[in-house]
Amino acid sequence: MNTTLDTAQPAKAGREDMDRLDGAWYLDKLVQTLVFVGGISAIVFIIGIFAFITKEGLGFIIHDLNLKEFFLSPRWAPTSSYHPTYGILALIAGTASVTGLAMVVAVPFSLGAAIFIAEFASGKLREGLKIVVELLAAIPSVVWGFIGLTIMNPLIIKLFDVPVGLNVLNAGIILGLMAAPIMTSISEDALKAVPDRYREAAEALGATRWQVIYKTVLPAAKNGLLGAVLLGVGRAFGETMAVLMATGHAINIPTSVFDSVRALTATIAAELGETAEGSEHFQALFTIGIFLFLITFIINLTADLIVRGVRKG
Amino acid sequence: MFDATALNRRNHRVQGLFRLLFGTMTMLLIIPVLIILGTLIVEGGPALSIDFLFSAPTNGMTAGGIFPALLGTVWLVAVALLVSVPLGVAAAIYLSEYAGNNWLTRLINLAIINLAGVPSIVHALFGVGAFVLFFGMGTSILAASLTLAIMTLPVVIVATLQSLQAVPHAFREACWNMGATRWQTIRRVVLPNAISGILTGIILEVSRTAGETAPIMFTGAVFFSPFLPQGILDQTMALSLHLFVISTQVPNVPEHLPFAVALVLIAMVLLMNSLSIAFRVYLRGKKKW
User: Fold this and answer.
1) Given CB 3.0 to 4.6 Å as the disulfide criterion, which of A164, A168, A216, A221 pairs with A202?
2) This prediction's pTM
3) Which pLDDT score is estimated for A2?
4) Chain B partners of A35 at a C-beta cutoff of 8 Å?
5) Which residues of chain A fall short of a pLDDT of 70?
6) Which residue of B has its CA nearest to A212?
7) Domain boundaries of chain A, sorted by first residue
């Protein structure tokens, strides 16, 4: 990687510097190669993930996939003995409704919390809140699912007088609470990245704290905040255990927040263990995996481009 | 001249109002979680005991303890760390010390973001396709740990990268000027100054790996096993999967049991994270430059 050397680095040993070609020099080259392998491993793994899930799903895509049925039929009945159907429309609706509700819950609160932590809180309060947010982000998804199952479920049944509490509302709130800490901390970073001289200039013009935030900081941090929201969407979209446990797992296009649904991710988690390796059903689940991979790839890429745009601008 | 005008007072009130509004929003995010944690403690706490941690489940998992699951999680995390830590630290050293500002570096960063962003169940599918089937490891601790390692690699890379970049560039230049090679500089100057930051990253990695469920479901963790794992090619129970199993798959589980498992899992994870944070705060206070 000679092209990566800049002027601040030691001169490349040439033939004329034979005295540099000792053990230390060879060790240096060896380590450079090793860390380079480590560096590109992330690329290798991402390509590997796509290659291996495609390999397992390819048979279905070539032989059985009916694009129209796959995306437009709400009937997911892979185990039907007379006519197995693979339609993921209802599953997409399930994922979309839960993710959508989660964002409705989480976006305003995350942005509010980020503004409070970055612009209003100071000193110990600020440090304390940042630590709490970090700890909240660490709660495992299976624990969130368990909370949906045992705490939210009876609560929703009681509060809204509905027969089942495992539904869009339950999973949406759970996912919102899960995604909020990450969105809060990335938004807070985005707000902090706005240079203080912007704030000082606005304050010098006589703006109050809120006017500074509303007219100066928020517009300047716009892209970073958008990136944070997108990462939250990606996180909620790809969540598996919590939606498996809290949605009710019923194939259904929801008409209200009290309907049970089933998500794309949860379908794979629930069914993969029951399918024979290489069967049509097995391959269909991998095909859903490819779909999930591509969607999250696009979400993450977009978020990255938006956030990067900020840094350059 | 410096008396507050009506406008000043109004502005002051508006600002107080917004402060209150955003403060309330922050609290509304935090308080429900505290209530939930409180409920977990109240419901699961009484069932906790040393015996619960160190005995096996009995009566079709409706009684007894969680020892095999706890031990399985330790196995999974340990093997995953053996892979993810060297690889992640190497990647971070490359990005911090060698990589230039070029397309390859951008590609690596993009890959890291996506490794962290791909749904956990897709990582599970990859683990099944690659490790369980293609490389013939079967459902084993090895396959599950490799899947976990790849999934959590970004945690190590990002934490290590941050602590490497926190070492001032002047330290490196001073070392190079004395004729040290690049590796000598990294080994003698950069790493010693960054090692504690890397350690906090590793603690975070442990916590993250221990809590994951979906990636191990089909790659090496089983609902129930009468045996403790003897090696990395055995299957194992795991704490996170055990919580899923006894709260959804097993009938007639007494109510306190899954609460106790959830409490152990969450206590483990939060303890690790608190440790990592405390370590970080302590180091920040000690920093000399």
Assistant:
1) A216
2) 0.88
3) 45
4) 90-91, 93-94, 97-98
5) 1-21, 309-313
6) B15
7) 20-63, 89-312
